[in-house]
Amino acid sequence: NAGVTQTPKFRILKIGQSMTLQCAQDMNHNYMYWYRQDPGMGLKLIYYSVGAGITDKGEVPNGYNVSRSTTEDFPLRLELAAPSQTSVYFCASSYSRDGRDTQYFGPGTRLTVL
Amino acid sequence: EDQVTQSPEALRLQEGESSSLNCSYTVSGLRGLFWYRQDPGKGPEFLFTLYSAGEEKEKERLKATLTKKESFLHITAPKPEDSATYLCAVPQGGSEKLVFGKGTKLTVNP
């Protein structure tokens, strides 16, 4: 199993550009998550999904959109990129019904907005 | 509001010098506490899950313990390869969302 994979690893965007961060998992997990990690600030939840076709906002959803058309994939869309979205983005997945199951993380995407 | 606080923010040890990292939490109805290890430029790697006060788990030089208010990650005779940032997290009350602490950056010098 590859686990959780993310592409790209690095990306530089100009202000106002858009892009999609890709995330896929091959563990047949129901739950998928997007986090951002800023220096000294810990991991913050952006969006999460409890299954195909179902998504919900996390702590910091503004400026992002998600969709979940399959169990395996959970792309994160950035519209009109801003410098405040410079961060490292992590995707995670779990087979969780009540938060007790382990979340497994991908390797991350480092995004810089200039 | 559910909170997770880790201390210290950074810790430098000499190889072989044992110590402990702390994770204190305020959450209604604890349903588990997770420890992760994160190396620079990589995603968090799962270490342990603890579900109830008094529970302990071990992996090589690491031992995690849990009380009703906090968890400790004890590192016995650390080696340079144990250098990493250690994160703890708890499920937010009544949901599947995790609340993470800011982490403790551990450096072990040879």
Characterize the structure shown:
- The complex is a heterodimer of chains A (114) and B (110).
- Chain A has strands at 4-7, 10-13, 19-25, 31-38, 42-51, 54-57, 64-66, 76-78, 87-94, 104-105, 109-113.
- Chain A has 114 residues and is mainly beta.
- In chain A, the strands form two sheets. In chain A, strands 2, 4, 5, 6, 9, 10 and 11 form a seven-stranded mixed sheet that branches. Chain A has a four-stranded antiparallel sheet with strand order 1-3-8-7, with no helix packed on it.
- In chain A, strand 4 and strand 5 form a beta hairpin.
- Chain A is globular.
- Chain B is mainly β.
- Chain B has no helices and eleven strands.
- Chain B has strands spanning 3-7, 10-14, 19-26, 33-38, 45-50, 56-59, 62-66, 70-75, 84-91, 98-100, 104-109.
- In chain B, strands 2, 4, 5, 9, 10 and 11 form a six-stranded mixed sheet that branches. A five-stranded antiparallel sheet of chain B has the order 1-3-8-7-6, with no helix packed on it.
- The radius of gyration of chain B is 13 Å and the shape is globular.
- The model of chain B has no long low-confidence stretch (mean pLDDT 93).
- The chains are: A mainly beta (114), B mainly beta (110).
- The interface between A and B is medium-sized, with 28 and 24 residues.
Layout of helices and strands:
The complex is a heterodimer of chains A (114) and B (110).
Chain A: E1 4-7, E2 10-13, E3 19-25, E4 31-38, E5 42-51, E6 54-57, E7 64-66, E8 76-78, E9 87-94, E10 104-105, E11 109-113
Chain B: E1 3-7, E2 10-14, E3 19-26, E4 33-38, E5 45-50, E6 56-59, E7 62-66, E8 70-75, E9 84-91, E10 98-100, E11 104-109
Parallel strand pairs in B: 2-11
Antiparallel strand pairs in B: 1-3, 3-8, 4-5, 4-9, 6-7, 7-8, 9-10, 9-11
